[in-house]
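Q: What does the assembled structure look like for these inputs?
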Amino acid sequence: MTEAADLRAHFLDEVGRRVGDVEIVTGAACATRYRDPFALVPSAGAEAAIRPGSASSVQAIVQIANTFGAALWPISRGENLGYGGAAVSDKCIVLDLMRMNRILEVNVPDGFCLLEPGVSFVELFEHLEAHDIPLWLSVPGYGLGSVVGNALERGVGNSPYGDHAAQICGLEVVLGNGDLIRTGMGALSGSGMWQRQKTALGPRLDELFVQSNLGVVTKMGLWLMPEPEASVVVDVEIEERETLGACIEALASLKRRGLLPDAPVVSNYLTKAALVSRRSDWIDGSTPLDVSAIDRVRKKLGVGWWNAKIRIYGLPTVLEIALHSTLEAMRQLPACTCTVSKWRRGAPKHLAPRGVPSGEGLVNSRWCGSTGAHIDFAWTLPLSGAEVLRNSTEMEKKLFATGLDYHSSFYVRDRHVLNVVQILFDQQDSGMCAAIDALYLSLIADAARDGFGMHRVPLRYRAHAAEMFGFGGHALAQCRERLKQALDPNGVISPTKASSTEKV
Amino acid sequence: MTEAADLRAHFLDEVGRRVGDVEIVTGAACATRYRDPFALVPSAGAEAAIRPGSASSVQAIVQIANTFGAALWPISRGENLGYGGAAVSDKCIVLDLMRMNRILEVNVPDGFCLLEPGVSFVELFEHLEAHDIPLWLSVPGYGLGSVVGNALERGVGNSPYGDHAAQICGLEVVLGNGDLIRTGMGALSGSGMWQRQKTALGPRLDELFVQSNLGVVTKMGLWLMPEPEASVVVDVEIEERETLGACIEALASLKRRGLLPDAPVVSNYLTKAALVSRRSDWIDGSTPLDVSAIDRVRKKLGVGWWNAKIRIYGLPTVLEIALHSTLEAMRQLPACTCTVSKWRRGAPKHLAPRGVPSGEGLVNSRWCGSTGAHIDFAWTLPLSGAEVLRNSTEMEKKLFATGLDYHSSFYVRDRHVLNVVQILFDQQDSGMCAAIDALYLSLIADAARDGFGMHRVPLRYRAHAAEMFGFGGHALAQCRERLKQALDPNGVISPTKASSTEKV
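A:
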């Protein structure tokens, strides 16, 4: 046994002996479960995982880890596919919170819930359904992931509540030093206000635990959207690639006039194609889809080069006005078709444009065949049609030059645009994997050169992406390092996660 | 010279010698300027103040303070009247940022500005006016205060942007240890996204510097409201005290239906009375206004017992619908009168319900005469008519029992209600001042017993209010103390501000 393995075995023994409600997983079962299923570079997977059943067990484990100098890698459910899945850094022991899956509270009039990290989108949805609770979810592409984990990594959905981290209201956290805190009004014992107000006296700490390694979140309050009286969805099919700029401008203008509280999303033809077909259905060999293949895809599947989805919620009368303005704006775009779907409270729920989580989100990873996978590049751009079009064109060129298809979605927010590019590839093509690995690094550097930063990034590129935030001799990174030292002096929680010093 | 005075003199000498752009104030001019003009217990005022002209001067001063072990008390302009003004803790040297008053950027399409802390609401307003910039401010009662300072202390205004701290997007901060950081996209050198997205990769730190003593904010990005196409204001005069509960419920319902993005405010008769008259106009002696005096006030000034102000902004057609629903809801309240004021873009701006800062906010402090003052009690309640009414009645009873009038405003937010009670008093009545001092402490404890916490609190009561957040053996306070140690190890910035251990 190596010294490290020896230490790990002792640590796990101690955890098994002292912590009541815990499962420990090692060996092949562990290595297979805890790894990035979509990794560009195959890795061995984790050597050990601990599955606590309660916050007090988490606290005990973190305290023991401090004694042993063990490093833990908390995951809620480890399903952040496209961003590293359950991949952990070297030597870390997975702290898998999936067994902590209680829905502790759902409040209807005030629209919030209090969750443990193991609750999946599907479980929360089924709970709301079973109890006929008129609150709507905002869901990411893959519904088996954790609601808490997704919010903590700034996942997004399609609804006015689609910026999931922005809906966080009150946390319970086991800090790296083993202390257990409740943030905001949660620190006022017995208060019913914990999930009702985001701030209390003094600095708000919730955001400190987002995309962070300062502690383990064991409970999260989250605001949910009350069922609206009605809704309307406008699907806009856009024929020409170059119309993206005008479309973004039109949506920005509608948002600035207060007509679209939602973040409308504009995606290209591949979003649908990758869900319902494989690339081998359209083209031979491994070159990117060419113009004629793209034409075939679009004709066969009936999708535009770009497809905008605009959701509006509220009073039926208000919706009609917003719809009128939206259609007026969209119809000024060249060569586009609008389809309108309406829903009113009382109509069948399955027709409502609410977030319905699905385990099918994995499907599009099969675009390149049964060993297909994807890795996502999520970054932000200004709320400017010209800038978005220019950057989209550049990105497409770089992907094509690497032999990749272009799969891209733009979320139009109040003051910026979030762009998520899914890089779809075949995991067995090791040459392509190496090319993507190099491409990803260069995309991050190119973005930074133009003043743009990453929104969310797989573990493998985290340090490289963080490195770009270099103002004042990396003063912000040093500040974060001081915060890390303060709350996790022995570095037991995901020690390499926030660092800008460790490179790929 | 005492040892402390000696140290201070040496520190000031060193600052004067080494920092280029700085003014140093001591003696009577300092003591008079830097104190709480509305203090319940008279204090001597500060013994020294430093007024730097730039962020690099701030940084140099903080670095020198670290060397000397000097304690600084940063104020933006020190005009947070009702919450302690420019009062500083014992031995602290005021770091007055008023000279740093540049408006560094105003962006119209994306609705934001970048400010130094010395910019007042009046100055920002005049800048927007002078350049005919179609962005509206949200302003507090007193317009000579700092925009930055107000947001940092969670000040509020009447507009959809009225939660000022929530509009913060990107900070430049000199940490207690002397490092200068830029948060969010500001750390990506040359990025234009600093004020366009609140989050970048990793934890968001902006909220860490709100109601905080971890650093000195030297630049702040703030989102501003684009001028709407139209607006409508509904003033609701409510005759009966007990109707407050039904009014809050009705407003909550309108908000839940998405019709009122603004936080409507419900204030009692004294809000207007204190602005336009003095208590001696209505009653002799020092007993609280009685029923007949309140009747006289209301008849003469034409105000309700409660007065709700509801502002709606947007497209004229949408406004009509929101107005219709609002009037329908309000007219179901017993004994109330609605007055509607409309504005459309192009109509005279002075008729628009935008935030116009005023230096007149001080006037209501004169309610108790020329030596009148006020101290504010700002706390949060659930979004429930019954709870709000019950707590309002209790509060009024406690104030009356102390011989005070009841001046109260309720801001109806998405999931809770913010209640600001202005305690108006005569500073020369030392018996009353002592009674208010005791009352304030008991009000904080009573609120905590019922599960409610303070929103903002004068320095004098900060430790007592913080003490209420005791979950897990004051684990949150200990966490904040660790953060303080990390970013300000020598305790040079407002050392007693966040502590829950130092008592009044």
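Confidence is low (pLDDT under 50) at residues 500-504 of chain B.
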